Amino acid sequence: MCAAGLAFGAAAPAQAATADIVTRTPQGGQTVALTFDDGPNPQDTPALLQVLRQHQVKAVFCLWGEHVRQYPDLVRQIVQQGHTLCNHSMRHSDMGNWSANQIRADLQETNAAIRQAVPGAQIPYFRAPYGSWGQSPQVAAELGMQPLGWAMDIGDWEPPGTFELVQRLNQRRTPGAVILMHDGGGDRSQTVQAVNQIIPQWKAQGWTFTLPDGSSGSDPGNNPGDPGNNPGDPGNNPGDPGNNPGDPGNNPGDPGNNPGGPSGPCDVDYTVVNDWGNGFQGAIYIRNTGSSPINNWTLQFSLPNVTISNGWNGDWTQSGSQITVKAPSWNPTIQPGQRAELGFVANKSGNASAPNQFTLNGNVCS
User: Fold this and answer.
1) Which of 20, 37, 44, 183 is catalytic?
2) Which residue from 6, 7, 26, 87 has the highest number of Cβ atoms inside 10 Å of its Cβ?
3) Which residues, in sequence order, are CB contacts of 353 under 8 Å at separation 6+?
4) Signal: present as a keyword of the record (predicted)?
């Protein structure tokens, strides 16, 4: 059956997809992007769509392929209301150790299921189940989908109550954050209620709702007849890099590192993006200030009283207070003048002061 009259997704990639995991909005500042995983779900997705329509906000829906086949009418409703689609795999499997061919077959099967429901649908994003990326960022980019991470996770997969979810949203919100929530995989009625509360609150505080980076245009409301939200100032300031406090077990795959590779002068910036007492979210920027590429890099630093629970854009390991991050296989080189952006979430048992020294491939960075 032809789904005539549908706007095939709210956005298409503005440029060729890359293997970089997007966690921010392109504007930064007082903008956020709402993303919802594991649907469609007949119990809660329709109520969520009603809330978003009422408040004139567009979101990204990361679709579970098996659920798409079960509830194609809901996928059509998502598209008809001008929201953006994201491939979230066919069966929500952990892809961390899959081969590139296995990943490609799964992503293509999921896209086919979505396009069976909505012929010609645009699917600009891919999000790995459990945040276990493995080789999927490169494969997704080759298929034209931007890997979509998140800067903020409210932990709604185990419903703690609407009040608690609203508190987490308010306490963990950061400028330009991509926010991970769920409309499928269980009872998500509390998430729907929390979203219904925070949208008018945040709008009153001057925040706007837009799409993550990697999409064409910051105005997601491009479905005539369904008014979109005001994307605000489209200034191109990507803000701080995203942090991923989501599901643990992130496996960026085998980076195939060679610490003996060429290295050059480097500069490292460290910042705490969000602190909630017994834990925090951190971001690290590594810049190549030399004239030669830094290949297969390994970054090392010390963080006393801290246990890393999740890290991304690198292969993270910890021994005591010593932290080691190795280059991911999909981004092993930092070219001159370029930078790598890392993020992590950690628990802390005392004062967690900033590292006083970073070494990259054995060289001390400034």
Assistant:
1) 37
2) 87
3) 304
4) yes
d(CA 261, CA 257): 9
Which of 67, 83, 182, 183 is an active site residue? 182
Percent of the chain with pLDDT over 70: 79
**CA separation for the pair 31, 25 (Å, rounded):** 7
Q: Does residue 55 have an active-site annotation?
A: no
Query: Domains in the chain and their CATH numbers?
Result: 31-209 (3.20.20.370), 266-364 (2.60.40.290)
Q: Between residues 316 and 229, which one has the greater pLDDT? A: 316
For 121-168, write each residue's pLDDT tens digit.
Answer: 999 999 999 999 999 999 999 999 999 999 999 999 888 999 999 999
Active site residue 182: yes
Task: Please report how many Cα atoms fall inside a 13 Å half-sphere around the Cα of residue 256, on the Cβ side.
Answer: 8
Q: What are the residues facing 31 on neighbouring strands?
A: 208
**Crossing angle of helices 45-54 and 72-80, rounded to 10°:** 10
Q: Which DSSP string corresponds to 245-305?
A: -S-S----------TTS----EEEEEEEEEE-SSEEEEEEEEEE-SSS-EES-EEEEE-TT
